[in-house]
Amino acid sequence: MRRKLSAGILAGILAGSQLVGCGSASAEHDNTNEAVQERSDTEFIDKTSNEIDSSDSTENKADNDIEETIANMEISRTIKLDTSNIQTFNDTNGDGYGEFQGFGTSLCWWANRCGYSEKLTQDSAEAFFNKETGLGMTIGRYNVGGGDNVTTEDITASMKEENPFIHKDHIRRSDSVVPGYATDVTKIDLSENTKEYYETNFARADFDCGFAWNYDWNADKNQMNILMAAAKAAGDEFIAEAFSNSPPYFMTVSGCTSGGEDPSVDNLREDSYTAFACYMADVIEHWAKEGVINFQSVDPMNEPASSYWKYESEKQEGCHFSQGESQSRILVELNKELQNKGINIIICASDETSIEAAIMSYKNLSAEAREVVSRIDTHTYQGTQRNMLRTIAQEAGVNLWMSEVDGTYSIGKKATKMSAALGFTEAIMTDLNGLMPSAWIMWDAVDLHVDSNNKYDTCTRAEADKIIEEGTPFWGIAIGDHDKQELLLSKKYYALGQFSRYIRPGYTLVGSSDNTVAAVNKEDKSIVIVALNTNSDDLKWEFDLSKFETGTGNITAIRTSGDENWADVTDSCGITQNGNTFTSFIKGSSVTTFIIR
User: I need a surface site. Which of 159, 161, 244, 296 has the fewest CB within 10 A?
Assistant: First the structure.
């Protein structure tokens, strides 16, 4: 039986007129001391360790003794929800509350790797995008591949003369050789054929770029299989974004979609901006006309200001676009081509690898480019100036997404099996609290693969099982076993679900603390609080909802820990309420979500 709140807990959220609007960024700092009132966890542990040890010593301790132990624990932390500090991005109805759009994943590169298999495709769609049985993600970022022109043979002078772009195959990841849609790529020679010949025999003929090409719409069927399955699993809430890691190889300076000879120099040729814009627009238009997917947004770049993307890299596609003129030019060109086709779509910029780079890239856009950009997409692999980027986006009146991040996060002891999950949770909380974005999207959901038939997949099933069992830090939230056609779900997966299953589209992020994320649903007056305890000791926290109107409701508690995955612990975590506050037992090395209705 779920514990009911006494008359005095939340039934409604404050009226919009009581909120600070777009200019409220400083309120986050001003209310820091009020939002979190901490006592020393060490002091608390010293005072209560005997009680905890006593209660844990007997496995069959009666429920009333456990409840008494929890009741006698001292409160180690008070979290006060701060309604003066709220998400304002994506406020579609002008009521002052931004509307969260969801959690998601890039489809690079795992969809290209898993989409050949009907079973892995369906299992992935259910695990990541089904809101009843899985994570309930609502966003999938689709990479419009640039392809490449490579060979395993030794390249001769005659081969190079016939095809100046040909080079040795070089990517050593099993998942990131992404095909491009352009086929029958032909150099235009008006001394041999007329302009009409190229326009008649090819889907595209760009005389500035100097090439004509057709399209093979089956080229990227693996990634498209995952995209379609994800859209079906997520239903009406699904959002698809198209982005590009590199223009097609024949539009680049180096002839290689992994980057340039000098990775700090632009790799899109000066004569190919319009050609690349046409390519992106053609792909978006085709899938819409086929009734397959309507992309809501597009970014023609990925981490463009960085110098990662080098010719014949072993990693993946990539293309440098310098901040300022280069980035501005491709955004404007893409907008023109989309408008020519009558396509209404959100244009984003610039998916930089760091927060500071995102700030500088946006500031350096031309006035014309800023006019076409209605959302800033940023990655958070590096950087700290989240509040600054948030303020810049608010003042510019554009939306803000955290559109990519992941890593080998780790917090706490290995023995808890939660070190990767706790580190991942902290990263999510840092982004949500610092940026207050309208979406949070991870990188490659399946970044590790087991496949005895692929020389680049060196992870064995035994190693994969150990990673899952011990909670070892790794990139991704799941491992794909291609030998057994299985998807192995990690503690990072379940940690993400503590957010994505309960903070749903339409909710509004609200200020809380470094160890919590809070969101409210103005439609049904519910609150969600995700609480992270990185301490290996069990604690007792107090949650202050005094900034909200009074009423009645219920509290449900869902927890992931070393021995639990999305476990309903409502009746065992000692929830007690007193007016507009409630206290709860917070298990050591765990992530707990409270749903207050």
Answer: 161
Q: What is the pTM of this model?
A: 0.89
CA 373/CA 84 separation, integer angstroms: 28
Q: Is residue 479 within 8 Å of residue 457, measured between CB atoms? A: no
Contact 521, 504 (CB under 8 A): yes
Length of the chain: 597
The pLDDT tens digits along the chain (597 residues) read: 333 332 222 333 333 333 323 333 333 333 333 333 333 343 433 444 444 444 455 555 556 777 788 888 999 999 999 999 999 999 999 999 999 999 999 999 999 999 999 999 999 999 999 999 999 999 999 999 999 999 999 999 999 988 899 999 999 999 999 999 999 999 999 999 999 999 999 999 999 999 999 999 999 999 999 999 999 999 999 999 999 999 999 999 999 999 999 999 999 999 999 999 999 999 999 999 999 999 999 999 999 999 999 999 999 999 999 999 999 999 999 999 999 999 999 999 999 999 999 999 999 999 999 999 999 999 999 999 999 999 999 999 999 999 999 999 999 999 999 999 999 999 999 999 999 999 999 999 999 999 999 999 999 999 999 999 999 999 999 999 999 999 999 999 999 999 999 999 999 999 999 999 999 999 998 999 999 999 999 999 999 999 887 544 699 999 999 999 999 999 999 999 988 899 999 999 999 999 999
- Please state, in angstroms and rounded to a whole number, the distance separating the CA atoms of residues 55 and 35: 32
Integer CA distances (angstroms), 120 to 273, 454, 487, 547, in order: 37, 17, 7, 46
Question: 479 vs 466, 482, 490, 493, 531, CA distance in Å?
Answer: 11, 10, 8, 10, 26
CA–CA gap between residue 468 and residue 465 (Å, rounded)? 5
State how far the Cα of 261 lies from the Cα of 279, in Å rounded to an integer: 24
**CB 107 within 8 Å of CB 404:** no
By the 10 Å C-beta count (0-12 exposed, 13-18 middle, 19+ buried), 517 is classed as buried
Give the Å distances, CA to CA, from 133 to 117, 440, 445, 541: 21, 20, 17, 29
Alpha helices in 364-418 (DSSP H): 367-372, 386-396
3-state SS string for 469-516: HHCCCCCCCEEEECCCCEEEECHHHHHHHHHHCCCCCCCEEEEEECCE
Could you tell me if 90 and 427 are in contact, meaning their C-beta atoms sit under 8 angstroms apart?
no
CA angle 149, 152, 155 (to 5 degrees): 75
Q: How far apart are CA 179 and CA 133, in angstroms?
A: 32
